[in-house]
Protein backbone atom coordinates (compact mmCIF):
# COMPACT_ATOMS: atom_id res chain seq x y z
CA UNK A 1 0.00 0.00 0.00
CA UNK A 2 1.25 3.46 -0.83
CA UNK A 3 1.66 5.53 2.29
CA UNK A 4 1.05 9.25 2.35
CA UNK A 5 4.28 11.20 2.43
CA UNK A 6 4.86 13.70 5.15
CA UNK A 7 4.46 16.86 3.07
CA UNK A 8 7.33 19.21 2.32
CA UNK A 9 6.11 22.80 2.45
CA UNK A 10 5.87 23.79 -1.20
CA UNK A 11 3.94 26.63 -2.76
CA UNK A 12 1.19 25.15 -4.91
CA UNK A 13 -0.66 26.49 -7.94
CA UNK A 14 -3.47 24.05 -7.21
CA UNK A 15 -3.37 20.87 -5.14
CA UNK A 16 -0.43 18.71 -6.20
CA UNK A 17 0.77 21.21 -8.83
CA UNK A 18 3.84 23.15 -7.89
CA UNK A 19 3.88 26.91 -8.39
CA UNK A 20 6.78 27.45 -10.83
CA UNK A 21 9.98 28.83 -9.27
CA UNK A 22 10.34 32.60 -9.63
CA UNK A 23 11.99 33.55 -12.91
CA UNK A 24 15.41 35.11 -12.45
CA UNK A 25 18.49 35.57 -14.61
CA UNK A 26 19.59 32.14 -13.41
CA UNK A 27 16.42 30.11 -14.04
CA UNK A 28 16.16 28.12 -17.28
CA UNK A 29 14.85 30.29 -20.11
CA UNK A 30 12.26 29.70 -22.81
CA UNK A 31 13.33 30.87 -26.26
CA UNK A 32 11.85 31.98 -29.53
CA UNK A 33 13.83 32.88 -32.61
CA UNK A 34 13.60 34.14 -36.17
CA UNK A 35 12.02 31.03 -37.68
CA UNK A 36 12.20 32.33 -41.27
CA UNK A 37 15.94 32.84 -40.96
CA UNK A 38 16.35 29.24 -39.73
CA UNK A 39 14.18 27.96 -42.59
CA UNK A 40 16.42 29.76 -45.08
CA UNK A 41 19.69 28.80 -43.45
CA UNK A 42 22.24 27.37 -45.88
CA UNK A 43 23.51 24.20 -44.18
CA UNK A 44 25.28 22.77 -47.23
CA UNK A 45 28.73 23.02 -45.59
CA UNK A 46 27.68 20.34 -43.08
CA UNK A 47 25.16 18.49 -45.22
CA UNK A 48 26.82 15.09 -44.84
CA UNK A 49 27.29 15.45 -41.10
CA UNK A 50 23.66 16.50 -40.59
CA UNK A 51 22.38 13.60 -42.73
CA UNK A 52 24.44 11.22 -40.60
CA UNK A 53 23.03 12.79 -37.42
CA UNK A 54 19.50 12.44 -38.81
CA UNK A 55 20.07 8.70 -39.33
CA UNK A 56 21.38 8.45 -35.75
CA UNK A 57 18.31 10.24 -34.42
CA UNK A 58 15.93 8.03 -36.41
CA UNK A 59 17.58 4.97 -34.85
CA UNK A 60 16.18 6.17 -31.52
CA UNK A 61 18.60 4.22 -29.33
CA UNK A 62 16.84 5.23 -26.13
CA UNK A 63 13.29 4.37 -27.12
CA UNK A 64 13.09 1.71 -24.44
CA UNK A 65 15.22 3.48 -21.88
CA UNK A 66 12.72 5.75 -20.15
CA UNK A 67 10.68 3.12 -18.35
CA UNK A 68 9.81 3.34 -14.68
CA UNK A 69 10.75 -0.13 -13.54
CA UNK A 70 10.01 -1.81 -10.19
CA UNK A 71 12.62 0.19 -8.32
CA UNK A 72 10.46 3.30 -8.79
CA UNK A 73 7.41 1.59 -7.33
CA UNK A 74 8.01 2.11 -3.65
CA UNK A 75 7.46 4.62 -0.93
CA UNK A 76 9.93 7.49 -0.54
CA UNK A 77 8.88 8.36 3.03
CA UNK A 78 12.34 7.54 4.31
CA UNK A 79 13.91 10.49 2.47
CA UNK A 80 14.08 13.20 5.08
CA UNK A 81 12.43 16.55 4.55
CA UNK A 82 15.38 18.74 3.69
CA UNK A 83 16.86 16.22 1.29
CA UNK A 84 13.47 15.88 -0.36
CA UNK A 85 13.12 19.66 -0.72
CA UNK A 86 16.47 20.11 -2.47
CA UNK A 87 15.84 17.07 -4.64
CA UNK A 88 12.44 18.39 -5.75
CA UNK A 89 14.15 21.67 -6.61
CA UNK A 90 16.72 19.77 -8.71
CA UNK A 91 13.92 17.88 -10.47
CA UNK A 92 11.97 21.07 -11.15
CA UNK A 93 14.94 22.89 -12.58
CA UNK A 94 15.95 19.95 -14.75
CA UNK A 95 12.37 19.38 -15.93
CA UNK A 96 11.94 23.06 -16.83
CA UNK A 97 15.14 23.17 -18.84
CA UNK A 98 14.34 19.89 -20.67
CA UNK A 99 10.86 21.22 -21.39
CA UNK A 100 12.27 24.51 -22.66
CA UNK A 101 14.32 22.48 -25.19
CA UNK A 102 11.20 20.55 -26.19
CA UNK A 103 9.19 23.74 -26.85
CA UNK A 104 11.94 25.36 -28.90
CA UNK A 105 12.67 22.26 -31.02
CA UNK A 106 8.98 21.51 -31.55
CA UNK A 107 8.23 25.06 -32.64
CA UNK A 108 11.29 25.16 -34.93
CA UNK A 109 10.23 21.90 -36.53
CA UNK A 110 6.65 23.07 -37.03
CA UNK A 111 7.59 26.45 -38.46
CA UNK A 112 10.19 25.26 -40.99
CA UNK A 113 8.54 21.98 -42.01
CA UNK A 114 7.81 22.85 -45.63
CA UNK A 115 10.93 24.87 -46.26
CA UNK A 116 13.76 22.92 -44.67
CA UNK A 117 12.64 19.29 -44.30
CA UNK A 118 15.98 17.90 -43.08
CA UNK A 119 16.32 20.38 -40.25
CA UNK A 120 12.60 20.10 -39.50
CA UNK A 121 12.90 16.36 -38.96
CA UNK A 122 16.05 16.72 -36.86
CA UNK A 123 14.28 19.24 -34.60
CA UNK A 124 11.21 17.00 -34.41
CA UNK A 125 13.35 14.08 -33.22
CA UNK A 126 15.18 16.22 -30.67
CA UNK A 127 11.80 17.41 -29.39
CA UNK A 128 10.84 13.74 -28.99
CA UNK A 129 13.88 13.17 -26.74
CA UNK A 130 13.33 16.30 -24.65
CA UNK A 131 9.65 15.46 -24.16
CA UNK A 132 10.72 12.08 -22.77
CA UNK A 133 13.27 13.69 -20.49
CA UNK A 134 10.88 16.34 -19.18
CA UNK A 135 8.08 13.79 -18.77
CA UNK A 136 10.32 11.41 -16.86
CA UNK A 137 11.45 14.15 -14.48
CA UNK A 138 7.90 15.35 -13.94
CA UNK A 139 6.84 11.78 -13.15
CA UNK A 140 9.70 11.60 -10.65
CA UNK A 141 8.33 14.75 -9.01
CA UNK A 142 4.93 13.10 -8.70
CA UNK A 143 6.58 10.40 -6.55
CA UNK A 144 6.90 13.26 -4.06
CA UNK A 145 3.26 14.25 -4.55
CA UNK A 146 4.00 17.35 -6.58
CA UNK A 147 4.38 18.02 -10.29
CA UNK A 148 4.66 20.83 -12.80
CA UNK A 149 1.79 21.91 -15.01
CA UNK A 150 3.72 22.06 -18.29
CA UNK A 151 0.76 23.52 -20.15
CA UNK A 152 0.64 26.36 -17.63
CA UNK A 153 4.38 26.93 -18.03
CA UNK A 154 3.99 27.06 -21.83
CA UNK A 155 1.41 29.81 -21.55
CA UNK A 156 2.83 31.81 -18.67
CA UNK A 157 6.62 31.84 -18.95
CA UNK A 158 8.45 34.76 -20.46
CA UNK A 159 9.95 33.92 -23.84
CA UNK A 160 13.33 35.41 -24.72
CA UNK A 161 14.08 36.26 -28.35
CA UNK A 162 17.47 35.00 -29.54
CA UNK A 163 18.79 35.36 -33.09
CA UNK A 164 19.40 31.92 -34.71
CA UNK A 165 23.18 32.32 -34.23
CA UNK A 166 22.73 32.95 -30.50
CA UNK A 167 20.37 29.97 -30.27
CA UNK A 168 23.05 27.79 -31.89
CA UNK A 169 25.84 28.93 -29.52
CA UNK A 170 23.59 28.74 -26.44
CA UNK A 171 21.86 25.44 -27.21
CA UNK A 172 25.14 23.78 -28.22
CA UNK A 173 26.55 24.71 -24.84
CA UNK A 174 23.49 23.77 -22.86
CA UNK A 175 23.39 20.32 -24.50
CA UNK A 176 27.09 19.68 -23.90
CA UNK A 177 27.06 21.04 -20.36
CA UNK A 178 23.95 18.89 -19.78
CA UNK A 179 25.89 15.87 -21.02
CA UNK A 180 28.81 16.56 -18.69
CA UNK A 181 26.52 17.21 -15.72
CA UNK A 182 24.59 13.96 -16.13
CA UNK A 183 27.65 11.80 -16.81
CA UNK A 184 29.63 13.31 -13.92
CA UNK A 185 26.79 12.58 -11.49
CA UNK A 186 26.38 9.09 -12.96
CA UNK A 187 30.08 8.20 -12.70
CA UNK A 188 30.30 9.57 -9.19
CA UNK A 189 27.30 7.51 -8.02
CA UNK A 190 28.64 4.43 -9.75
CA UNK A 191 31.62 4.69 -7.42
CA UNK A 192 29.52 5.71 -4.41
CA UNK A 193 26.21 3.84 -4.66
CA UNK A 194 25.50 4.65 -1.00
CA UNK A 195 24.40 8.14 -2.16
CA UNK A 196 21.98 6.85 -4.81
CA UNK A 197 18.79 7.55 -2.87
CA UNK A 198 16.47 7.59 -5.88
CA UNK A 199 16.69 5.44 -9.06
CA UNK A 200 16.63 8.39 -11.46
CA UNK A 201 20.40 8.86 -11.29
CA UNK A 202 21.16 5.43 -12.71
CA UNK A 203 19.26 6.38 -15.88
CA UNK A 204 21.73 9.18 -16.62
CA UNK A 205 24.29 7.13 -18.57
CA UNK A 206 22.09 6.53 -21.65
CA UNK A 207 20.12 9.72 -21.05
CA UNK A 208 23.21 11.88 -21.40
CA UNK A 209 23.94 10.26 -24.77
CA UNK A 210 20.79 11.98 -26.04
CA UNK A 211 22.22 15.32 -24.91
CA UNK A 212 25.55 14.46 -26.49
CA UNK A 213 23.86 13.75 -29.84
CA UNK A 214 21.85 16.98 -29.62
CA UNK A 215 25.10 18.81 -28.95
CA UNK A 216 26.68 17.17 -32.01
CA UNK A 217 23.78 18.35 -34.17
CA UNK A 218 24.34 21.91 -32.97
CA UNK A 219 28.05 21.44 -33.55
CA UNK A 220 27.27 20.72 -37.21
CA UNK A 221 24.90 23.69 -37.38
CA UNK A 222 27.54 25.98 -35.93
CA UNK A 223 30.20 24.77 -38.34
CA UNK A 224 27.76 25.17 -41.25
CA UNK A 225 27.71 28.93 -40.62
CA UNK A 226 31.17 30.27 -41.44
CA UNK A 227 30.38 33.64 -39.90
CA UNK A 228 30.01 31.94 -36.53
CA UNK A 229 33.62 30.74 -36.41
CA UNK A 230 35.58 32.36 -39.19
CA UNK A 231 35.17 36.01 -38.26
CA UNK A 232 36.32 38.20 -35.38
CA UNK A 233 32.66 38.75 -34.46
CA UNK A 234 32.10 35.00 -34.30
CA UNK A 235 35.11 34.69 -32.00
CA UNK A 236 33.83 37.37 -29.64
CA UNK A 237 30.29 35.95 -29.55
CA UNK A 238 31.57 32.43 -28.97
CA UNK A 239 33.62 33.57 -25.98
CA UNK A 240 30.70 35.58 -24.67
CA UNK A 241 28.41 32.54 -24.68
CA UNK A 242 31.04 30.26 -23.14
CA UNK A 243 31.56 32.69 -20.29
CA UNK A 244 27.84 33.36 -19.79
CA UNK A 245 26.97 29.67 -19.65
CA UNK A 246 29.87 28.87 -17.31
CA UNK A 247 29.13 31.78 -14.97
CA UNK A 248 25.45 30.77 -14.80
CA UNK A 249 26.55 27.24 -14.00
CA UNK A 250 28.91 28.28 -11.21
CA UNK A 251 26.31 30.56 -9.62
CA UNK A 252 23.48 28.01 -9.74
CA UNK A 253 25.60 25.06 -8.60
CA UNK A 254 26.92 26.99 -5.59
CA UNK A 255 23.44 28.28 -4.79
CA UNK A 256 22.32 24.66 -4.67
CA UNK A 257 25.29 23.13 -2.88
CA UNK A 258 22.76 21.45 -0.50
CA UNK A 259 21.58 19.23 -3.31
CA UNK A 260 25.12 18.20 -4.28
CA UNK A 261 25.80 17.42 -0.61
CA UNK A 262 22.91 14.94 -0.63
CA UNK A 263 24.59 12.90 -3.37
CA UNK A 264 28.03 13.23 -1.79
CA UNK A 265 29.42 15.65 -4.37
CA UNK A 266 31.36 18.77 -3.50
CA UNK A 267 29.60 21.60 -5.39
CA UNK A 268 32.84 23.46 -6.12
CA UNK A 269 34.61 20.40 -7.44
CA UNK A 270 31.57 19.33 -9.49
CA UNK A 271 31.28 22.78 -11.05
CA UNK A 272 34.95 22.84 -12.00
CA UNK A 273 34.88 19.35 -13.56
CA UNK A 274 31.79 20.16 -15.62
CA UNK A 275 33.13 23.51 -16.85
CA UNK A 276 36.59 22.17 -17.72
CA UNK A 277 35.14 19.30 -19.73
CA UNK A 278 32.49 21.38 -21.49
CA UNK A 279 35.10 23.96 -22.42
CA UNK A 280 37.41 21.30 -23.82
CA UNK A 281 34.57 19.68 -25.80
CA UNK A 282 33.62 23.09 -27.22
CA UNK A 283 36.96 23.26 -29.03
CA UNK A 284 35.34 21.00 -31.66
CA UNK A 285 32.76 23.64 -32.47
CA UNK A 286 33.86 27.08 -31.25
CA UNK A 287 36.64 29.17 -32.79
CA UNK A 288 38.05 29.93 -29.35
CA UNK A 289 37.65 28.36 -25.94
CA UNK A 290 38.40 29.82 -22.51
CA UNK A 291 41.62 29.27 -20.63
CA UNK A 292 40.26 27.43 -17.57
CA UNK A 293 43.84 26.79 -16.39
CA UNK A 294 44.49 30.49 -15.95
CA UNK A 295 45.09 31.05 -12.20
CA UNK A 296 42.32 33.67 -12.06
CA UNK A 297 39.72 31.69 -13.98
CA UNK A 298 37.92 29.77 -11.25
CA UNK A 299 38.90 32.24 -8.50
CA UNK A 300 37.00 35.01 -10.25
CA UNK A 301 34.04 32.80 -11.19
CA UNK A 302 33.72 31.63 -7.59
CA UNK A 303 34.05 35.19 -6.33
CA UNK A 304 31.02 36.05 -8.51
CA UNK A 305 29.20 33.18 -6.85
CA UNK A 306 30.06 34.48 -3.35
CA UNK A 307 28.67 37.90 -4.31
CA UNK A 308 25.59 36.26 -5.77
CA UNK A 309 24.97 34.51 -2.45
CA UNK A 310 25.30 37.86 -0.65
CA UNK A 311 22.76 39.35 -3.07
CA UNK A 312 20.30 36.51 -2.29
CA UNK A 313 20.85 37.07 1.43
CA UNK A 314 19.96 40.77 1.07
CA UNK A 315 17.01 39.91 -1.18
CA UNK A 316 15.60 37.62 1.50
CA UNK A 317 15.52 40.31 4.19
CA UNK A 318 12.45 42.41 4.98
CA UNK A 319 14.20 45.68 4.26
CA UNK A 320 12.60 48.29 1.99
CA UNK A 321 13.22 47.86 -1.73
CA UNK A 322 15.41 50.96 -2.10
CA UNK A 323 17.71 49.84 0.69
CA UNK A 324 18.03 46.36 -0.76
CA UNK A 325 18.86 47.93 -4.13
CA UNK A 326 21.60 50.11 -2.61
CA UNK A 327 23.08 47.23 -0.62
CA UNK A 328 23.08 44.91 -3.64
CA UNK A 329 24.55 47.45 -6.06
CA UNK A 330 28.24 47.06 -5.12
CA UNK A 331 27.95 43.29 -5.49
CA UNK A 332 26.34 43.62 -8.92
CA UNK A 333 29.14 45.96 -9.98
CA UNK A 334 31.78 43.56 -8.65
CA UNK A 335 30.22 40.61 -10.49
CA UNK A 336 30.20 42.61 -13.70
CA UNK A 337 33.84 43.66 -13.15
CA UNK A 338 34.97 40.09 -12.52
CA UNK A 339 33.13 38.79 -15.57
CA UNK A 340 34.70 41.49 -17.69
CA UNK A 341 38.18 40.54 -16.45
CA UNK A 342 37.38 36.89 -17.20
CA UNK A 343 36.26 37.81 -20.71
CA UNK A 344 39.56 39.55 -21.31
CA UNK A 345 41.75 36.59 -20.30
CA UNK A 346 43.57 35.48 -23.42
CA UNK A 347 41.50 32.63 -24.95
CA UNK A 348 42.77 29.44 -26.56
CA UNK A 349 42.61 29.39 -30.34
CA UNK A 350 40.54 26.31 -31.13
CA UNK A 351 40.86 26.78 -34.90
CA UNK A 352 44.60 26.32 -34.54
CA UNK A 353 43.98 23.07 -32.62
CA UNK A 354 41.53 21.79 -35.23
CA UNK A 355 42.70 18.58 -36.75
CA UNK A 356 44.28 17.53 -33.49
CA UNK A 357 41.01 17.69 -31.50
CA UNK A 358 38.16 15.43 -32.66
FE1 LIG B 1 17.32 16.51 -22.60
FE1 LIG C 1 19.00 17.82 -25.23
TrEMBL record:
Record keywords: NADP included? yes
This molecule's function is given as:
Catalyzes the formation of the isocyclic ring in chlorophyll biosynthesis. Mediates the cyclase reaction, which results in the formation of divinylprotochlorophyllide (Pchlide) characteristic of all chlorophylls from magnesium-protoporphyrin IX 13-monomethyl ester (MgPMME).
Query: According to its UniProt record, which protein family does this protein belong to?
Result: Belongs to the AcsF family.
Q: Name one GO molecular function term.
A: iron ion binding
UniProt domain Rubrerythrin diiron-binding: residue ranges: 89-222
Entry's Pfam families?
Rubrerythrin
Q: Which UniProt keywords apply?
A: Chlorophyll biosynthesis, Iron, Metal-binding, NADP, Oxidoreductase, Photosynthesis
Pathway membership: Porphyrin-containing compound metabolism; chlorophyll biosynthesis (light-independent)
- The entry's protein name is Magnesium-protoporphyrin IX monomethyl ester [oxidative] cyclase
Q: Which cofactor does it need?
A: Fe cation
Gene Ontology biological-process annotations: light-independent chlorophyll biosynthetic process; photosynthesis
Q: Which species is this UniProt entry from?
A: Gloeothece verrucosa (strain PCC 7822)
Report the superkingdom from the record: Bacteria
- Gene designation: acsF
Q: Which SUPFAM superfamilies match?
A: Ferritin-like
Instruction: Describe the reaction catalysed, as an equation.
Output: Mg-protoporphyrin IX 13-monomethyl ester + 3 NADPH + 3 O2 + 2 H(+) = 3,8-divinyl protochlorophyllide a + 3 NADP(+) + 5 H2O
Q: Where do the TM regions start and end? A: none
What's the EC number here?
Answer: 1.14.13.81
